[in-house]
Automatic annotation (TrEMBL):
The gene is macB_4. InterPro entries: ABC3_permease_C, MacB_PCD, Macrolide_Exporter_MacB. The keyword Hydrolase applies. The chain crosses the membrane at residues 19-38, 263-289, 317-338, 358-377. Residues 18-227 form the MacB-like periplasmic core domain. It is found in: Cell membrane. This is Macrolide export ATP-binding/permease protein MacB. It comes from Urbifossiella limnaea. Keywords: ATP-binding, Cell membrane, Hydrolase, Membrane, Nucleotide-binding, Transmembrane, Transmembrane helix.
């Protein structure tokens, strides 16, 4: 009989306790893995958005923690376009606004104000209608997810802000519904940049930069030159404003919302680790106490202390692996369930990546090792004669 088979049979002899232990630990693992998966999926979505559009630099107002509170004049955009080495600039106004439903309730959605030549349109797939054109006012394109949430299609009206029967300025006609490879755009609305300024009161919240590529030029050096040039720009009409230009990977690492999400993930992981270790410790201590005579017999027939430790730790790790498998499956289901809610389905992608699943398995194996260590050492110290006489 293989040693692993021996361990599995030991666990199956006490099926109810094994099942309850696995379920209890799986709940903690599912919470940890789901939280890590949400953060990982958001980061991956942002990375794919920048990679797919070949964005080299993200520019925002210096000293602002996130894109939604950045605000600067358009002079910076014009000057950035004139810098040597800059191939394209796509500016925008991004913020959250309320959408009033026909029932009178409101939901907060992300709007993006773009110009008709924004290179972000290049990877859109129109499902219905058309894209925004120059001169369009009070027209809106809806991402497919947002259109589904609002139940709106081409030709219908969306109300941003408060619906005032005497003031139609907040009513926007839907001219297009699109699919985007970027999850955030699927759940957002796109209006002209002039309309976005009227809705948010902001001038420009940021812009993306493509640096010209040439086989004769070191691209990283060209991007660094463009970064320094952009950060040296000044607006005479707003002398205190400064810009911060970041590579996409640096921008993602510094996003305050993602930092907060990572911190919450680590906190939940730490709590899950503590709860899991306590549960595993209780289960394995009970197991050792109930099997004192059995352990004494094993020691009497020649099992060394190290083999007894291996048996107890092996059982606790095996419990952890089963809980990890069940908990990861539960986390996958939880992320899919989460995306059924309209409030978040335009921002979160479902699923658990292999990297996150591996971290969940690693954490659970650690719980098994830590939770089983004390009972294992206690079992190995039992004297055969005393253990066999144990009631």
């Amino acid at each position: 009989m293989y040693f692993v088979t021996f361990l599995a049979k030991n666990l199956l002899r006490r099926r109810t306790r094994t099942l309850l232990t696995v379920i209890g630990l799986a709940v903690a693992v599912a919470a940890v893995v789901a939280m890590m998966a949400v953060g990982h999926n958001i980061e991956s979505a942002v990375e794919r958005a920048f990679d797919g559009r070949r964005v080299d630099l993200i520019v925002q107002q210096a000293g602002r923690s996130g894109g939604l509170n950045s605000d600067f004049g358009e002079t910076f955009v014009h000057k950035a376009r004139e810098l040597p080495g800059v191939a394209a600039v796509a500016e925008g106004v991004v913020n959250l606004v309320d959408v009033t439903r026909a029932s009178g309730t409101s939901d907060q959605v992300m709007i993006q104000g773009w110009r008709p030549d924004n290179f972000g349109y290049d990877d859109f797939t129109l499902k219905a209608g058309r894209k925004l054109a120059g001169g369009d006012r009070r027209k809106v394109m809806l991402g497919a997810t947002l259109a589904g949430n609002l139940g709106k299609g081409v030709g219908e009206t969306v109300v941003f802000g408060r619906d005032d029967p005497d003031d139609p300025s907040n009513r926007y006609e839907v001219v297009g519904v699109f699919d985007s490879p970027v999850i955030f755009e699927q759940g957002s609305a796109i209006v002209s940049i002039e309309d976005a300024r009227a809705l948010t009161g902001m001038r420009v919240t940021g812009f993306s930069v493509r640096v010209r590529r040439s086989p004769d030029v070191d691209h990283d050096a060209a991007v660094e030159d463009a970064r320094k040039g952009i950060e040296a720009l000044r607006d005479p009409a707003d002398p205190t404003a400064r810009l911060a230009a970041q590579r996409p990977e640096s921008y993602i690492n510094n996003l305050s919302h993602l930092k907060m999400l990572r911190a919450v993930s680590w906190l939940v992981s730490a709590l899950g680790l503590v709860v899991g270790v306590i549960g595993m410790l209780n289960t394995m201590i009970m197991s050792v106490v109930e099997r004192t005579q059995e352990i004494g017999i094993l020691r009497a027939v020649g099992w060394p202390p190290a083999r007894v430790i291996g048996m107890v730790l092996g059982e606790s790790v095996l419990l952890g692996v089963m809980a990890a498998a069940l908990g990861t499956a539960g986390a996958v289901g939880a992320t899919y369930l989460l995306t059924r809610f309209p409030q978040v389905n335009g921002f979160i992608e479902p699923g658990v990546s292999p990297a996150v699943a591996a971290r969940g398995f690693g954490l659970t194996v650690l719980i098994g090792l830590v939770g089983g260590l004390y009972p294992a050492v206690r079992a190995a110290r039992l004297l055969p004669t005393e253990a066999i006489r144990h009631d």
